[in-house]
Amino acid sequence: MLLSSVGVFLMTALAGIVSGQQQTTTSSNGTSLNPVATQYGSTFKNAGGKVLTSFVNAYVIFYGDWSSANSTADQNTFLGFVDGISSTNWFSILKEYTDGNGNAVSGPLNLAAAVHDTGSAGLNLTDHNAHKTIILNAVKSGYLSENNQLDSNGVYILLLGPDVHDSEFCSTNCGYNSYSDQFQYLFIGYPGACPNFCTPPMNKDQSPNNSPSIDSVITLFSHEIQDVLTDPRMDAWSVRNGDQVVEVGDFCSGTGTSTEQWFGNLQKASNGGSYNLEFNDAKYLVQTVYSKEQNKCLLSK
Ligand SMILES: *[C@@H]1O[C@H](CO)[C@@H](O)[C@H](O)[C@H]1NC(C)=O
Ligand SMILES: *[C@@H]1O[C@H](CO)[C@@H](O)[C@H](O)[C@H]1NC(C)=O
Ligand SMILES: *[C@@H]1O[C@H](CO)[C@@H](O)[C@H](O)[C@H]1NC(C)=O
Question: Where is the signal peptide (predicted)?
Answer without folding.
Answer: 1-20
